[in-house]
Amino acid sequence: MKRTFSVKAIWDDEAQVFYAQSDIEGLHIEAASLDEFEKIMLDAAPELILANHRSASKIAEH
């Protein structure tokens, strides 16, 4: 079964950063630009999905 995750970049005008709103457990991003936000997301999100969103039975199969 496939699962879809979402990540939304939201601008915080006071802090002058983009921050993440996501359903990926453990994903916390703050970045000054969208390019930086995307780089962090692409580096961190796959690992967090594997670590926090796979059941023990699915891990045992692989």
In brief:
By secondary structure, the chain is of the alpha+beta class.
Q: Can you tell me about this structure?
A:
The chain is of the alpha+beta class. The chain has one domain: 2-Layer Sandwich (TTHA1013/TTHA0281-like). Helices cover 40% and strands 23% of the residues. Strands 1-2-3 form a three-stranded antiparallel beta sheet, with helices on one face. A hairpin with a 7-residue loop joins strand 2 and strand 3.
Mean pLDDT: 89
Secondary structure: helix percent: 40-55%
Strand content: 15-25%
Count of discrete domains: 1
Q: Please trace the helix and strand order, writing H or E for each element.
A: EEEHH
Which parts are unreliable, with pLDDT below 50 for 5 consecutive residues or more?
none
Instruction: Please count the beta strands (DSSP E, at least 2 residues each).
Output: 3
Shape: elongated
Task: Please give the order of strands in the largest beta sheet.
Answer: 1-2-3
Number of helices: 2
Topology:
Blueprint (H helix, E strand, L loop, with lengths): L6 E6 L4 E6 L7 E2 L2 H19 L3 H6 L1
Antiparallel strand pairs: 1-2, 2-3
